[in-house]
Amino acid sequence: MDELISQLLTFAKGSWKHRWLGVLVAWLVGVIGAGIVLRVPDKYEASARIYVDTQSILKPLMSGLAVQPNVDQQVGMLSRTLITRPNVEKLIRMADLDLGTTSKGSQDGLVEQLMNTLQIKSTARDNLYTLSYQDQNPDKAKRVVQSLVSIFVESSLGDSRKDTDAAKKFITEQIKTYESKLESAEARLKEFKLRNIDVQTANGGTDIAGKLSEISTQLNQAKLELREAENARDASKLQLQNEKSDSANISTKSLMQESAQSLATPEIDSRIEVQKRNLDGLLQRFTEQHPDVIGARRLIKELEDQKKKEIQELRKSAMANPLSSSNNSLASQEMSRLLAASEVQVASLRARVSEYTSRYEKAREFLKTAPQTEAEYAQLNRDYAINKKNYEDLVSRRESASLSGDLESAAGVADFRLIDPPRVSPKPVAPNRLLLLLLALVAALGAGGFTAFAASQLRPVFHDARTLRNVIDLPLLGVVTLVLSEAAKRKERSDLRKFFAVLISLIVAFILLISALAFISGQIG
Fold this sequence. Notes:
Elements lengths: L1 H16 L1 H21 L4 E10 L4 H4 L9 H11 L3 H10 L9 H14 L1 E5 L4 E8 L2 H58 L1 H7 L4 H41 L3 H13 L1 H20 L5 H30 L4 H87 L3 E10 L8 H26 L6 H8 L13 H39 L1
Antiparallel strand pairs: 1-3, 1-4, 2-3
Helix pairs in contact: 1-14, 2-14, 2-16, 5-6, 5-7, 7-13, 9-11, 9-13, 10-12, 10-13, 11-12, 14-16
């Protein structure tokens, strides 16, 4: 620490030796600095304040119907991107700043100068924007700010219209593309339906497996009804043959007995026929050992035994009361009519069985190709549904974009209100001469001190024995001290007074200059 202090004292003593050179340089730098500060031209600031109202009564009313962009974000982005080269070039033309530029280089320089000096300050909470510009000519500064305000307001409207038109154009192109896709999908679906119309008719809205099961059930039911009708027809035919063979016998007794039999047992015959049909239905579902089958056979046997007993009683009654042969002829006619009806029913049921058999075979063929056909149909439907959904969404979005454009045209993106019109400050805002003069004074004193220090380093001297011993690294025999006379001391004191007088006069001169400028600025304000 002592060594550092000693070294600093050595530097101070060396600089003090060249103090007059330092104070001369300080005066020179101070005069030059003050002259530069006084010659810097004044700059006037023109400014304007704009309030951007982003709230509109139409926006909540049109919520859900039209696309509503983030207006605050749009205005904020506009304010940050307003000072661009195209906008500045437009501003130069609007403010007639290009009248004095004759070359491309000078015009580029003017653009760069404006881009560096134009300012847009905002308070995001209040949506207040301050546009300002500084220039030596107050009228020029005002024209620039007026032009900047116009560009600021017009840019938002133009960009909004451009965005809406670009969106509508893009959506319209996409709609045309999806129209062609939708038409192609519809054509493929129509071709598929025409090519597989038989499958669709056979399906009838159900799947092939369910339809096959349904046709199989109908076929079995038709076969059962056909067997029942054939059995009834055979029974009628047998009865008619018996009736005819008995009619050939001229014996009146036999005729009367047959007549009695035919007239007395129709109810039992019908019950026997019904039970036989029921038995056929049971045999299709159960075995011979099933209790229902055994019960049905027992009931049929009981009815046949009852029929035999009644026939015997009728024969006895016929023998006791013989009838005319006309009744026998009527019974034969009735049985012939019943046989003809049975034949018609059998033929109808055979046609039904044949039709169901044909349908069943077709359904089995369809079942083999059904998975591939259904997969192809599902793919076609899926493609058609996707294209249709996208098409409808695009049409809806186009209408929303049109409505949004109309909304922006009616209400605007935002309401720009000019709170403070462009005005120029009555007194210059730059440069700050008071601060610059203080900096000039500091620079002058610093330059003087640095000059004295540099001179001491260029022509170094030793001020004490220790410094000399450290430099030459040799032992010192002794030190001779300089003893000043009274005249030398008076001269040194006079020289010191002159130095401080010159230094203080520099500081006082700057203080007086700063005070004068402050007074003049106060008077102007």
